[in-house]
Structure formats: structure tokens, C-alpha cells
Amino acid sequence: MDTRDVFADAFERVREGVHRVANGLDADALAFRPDSDANSIGWLVWHLTRVHDDHVAEIAGREQTWTSDGFHERSGLPFDAADTGYGHSSEQVGEVRFDDPELLVEYHEAVVTQTRSYLETLDAEELDRIIDRRWDPPVTVGVRLVSVIDDQAQHIGQAGYVRGLWKRSRGAEDG
Asked: What is the pLDDT of residues 25-83, one digit of tens each?
């Protein structure tokens, strides 16, 4: 297994997690929040996908899928196209609602497809390319990809937990 395969496997595991937590849910279920300050399943999946899209697009030198494929307009979300959800207030989290729940999964799939294309170009030189000198040590492509995967894994776990709370609040078990 080479480095490309390791990264591809990690992004695939997140993709599978997105399907596990989002598939079969309607707009109300995606918008469920255990309390008024908690993140919803929809916000968590949208945010992890936006950060993924933003960071990998920057590394790959391409436009984000969010805008290039029209997902920003189709989502109807009230945020600037560059917004990834980072630093959102509780009120802003509540504004993330997908009337077409399939659009959320479709967006994630499109980002994963773009990421797979980029991963095919990875080699040792690309992984060591410095992309952010504001940190000490400077951030390389490899470090940024690991950061994206780590962030996604945390958020997909949170989304799974919220889904479980949603199911329990309705007296149903999640299978």
C-alpha cells in the first residue's frame, strides 16, 4: 500500500460515515439539535464537507466544488460562498437546513470524487510541499491532509452521536 492508498482509504471511511449518519434522514432529522446550542447532523456533515472541499481545493489549485458545481446556490443556505462553518454561532448553526437532504450527501460525494482525482497526483515531493508558512513548523500538504481527515473523523463521530440522540428522542433504536 502506498501513501495515496492510505489517504484514499481514510477519505473513503469518512465517506462511508457520511452515508451512515445522513442517509434516510429527512430535513427535520438532519436539523435536529439535542439542545439549542448543539450542532445538528446536517450542520456537522455540511461543515466537515465544506472544510474538506476548501482545504483540498486550495492544495490542488482548483475552485471549490461548493461553487464550481453549484452546490452553494442549490443549498439555499444564507452564507457567503466561502463560509465553511468555522466559528458559527448557535444561531448560524440553526440556519443550516437542507430541504433536499440528498443534496448534502450529493455534495459530499462530489467533493470525494474531486479528492480522489487529486490523490492520484500525490508523490513524496507533493506531500512535502509547504502550503502555509504561518506555522512553526510550516504546514505541508501531507500535514494538511492529515488535519482534514482528523477533523472529519471527529465530526462524523459527533454526527453519529447526534443521530443516536435523535433516534432515542423518538423511542426508536438506530440500526
From this structure: 999 999 999 999 999 999 999 999 999 999 999 999 999 999 999 999 999 999 999 99
Q: Tell the CATH superfamily of the 3-169 domain.
A: dinb family like domain (1.20.120.450)
Burial (CB count <10 Å: 0-12, 13-18, 19+), residue 30: buried
DSSP helix/strand/coil, 22: helix
pTM of the model: 0.95
Q: Give the number of other Cβ atoms within 10 Å of residue 13's Cβ.
A: 13
Q: What is the secondary structure of 49-85 as a DSSP string? A: HHHHHHHHHHHHTS--HHHHTSHHHHH--SS-TT---
